[in-house]
Amino acid sequence: MKFVDYPDTELMMFDLADMLASELAAALRQNDAACLCVPGGTTPGPIFDVLSGVKLDWDRVTVLLSDERWVPESHERSNARLVRQRLLTGRAAAATFLPLYADTPEPEAAVEALAEAITPHLPIDVLLLGMGADMHTASLFPGADRLAEALDDDAPVVVPMRAPGAGEPRVTLSAPVLAGAMSAHVVITGAEKREALERSEDLPPEEAPIRAVLANATVHWAP
Ligand SMILES: O=C(O)[C@H](O)[C@@H](O)[C@H](O)[C@H](O)COP(=O)(O)O
């Protein structure tokens, strides 16, 4: 794992957006298409704001979510809603978005079809993830009902997930899909998350799921 700390959040968001854009551009120089995978939550909005205005062949980029809350896009907790409002605007509006949600009451009915749509776009070229103070990333929560399945080397691409700290049911890309990204960045802010990251170093992924993606990742931190 590589760790980069920044003097302030604004600078981090700009630098990181710039880095993601360069990596996407490099992937597009090598291949016809590139896959960008992003998280939801409260942290990445400012990165999306910068990235959405970057000059890039966005029409060759597919955007995926690392995970989704099982709510329709009209819901304020929908990660797809965040991505549509903050990332898929401006120049990035030309990208293709693959949602991680379908209009079924429970995620179990939809995960296979979602995985089928995503699989042709793997491996992820550029991955951005967040992390919770409980050391979850994507929707790989400690104590979640299907965490062991999602951490397994042979895990399916998309796994439904229910956890005490998660609110509504979720779906998540599995650990091998996330860990298989060509380039991975984790963005965190504040002392609590930095301490959690340090604590995770002595824990197995079952207790600290962020461990499952850290080996080849760069963690970006600002106070
Ligand atoms: O849908 C989600 O909630 C995410 O994808 C999740 O994994 C998020 O990245 C962390 O919970 C951090 O969330 P914050 O950025 O809001 O702290």
TrEMBL record:
CDD domains: 6PGL (cd01400). One of its GO terms (biological process) is pentose-phosphate shunt. Its EC number is 3.1.1.31. It holds the Pfam family Glucosamine_iso. Keywords: Hydrolase. InterPro entries: 6-phosphogluconolactonase_DevB, 6PGL, Glc/Gal-6P_isomerase, NagB/RpiA_transferase-like. Residues 8-221 form the Glucosamine/galactosamine-6-phosphate isomerase domain. It catalyses: 6-phospho-D-glucono-1,5-lactone + H2O = 6-phospho-D-gluconate + H(+). It comes from the Bacteria. The keyword Cytoplasm does not apply. The keyword Oxidoreductase does not apply. One of its GO terms (molecular function) is 6-phosphogluconolactonase activity. Pathway: Carbohydrate degradation; pentose phosphate pathway; D-ribulose 5-phosphate from D-glucose 6-phosphate (oxidative stage): step 2/3. It is an enzyme of class 3 (hydrolase). PANTHER family: 6-PHOSPHOGLUCONOLACTONASE (PTHR11054). Hydrolysis of 6-phosphogluconolactone to 6-phosphogluconate. Belongs to the glucosamine/galactosamine-6-phosphate isomerase family. 6-phosphogluconolactonase subfamily. This is 6-phosphogluconolactonase. It comes from Albidovulum aquaemixtae.
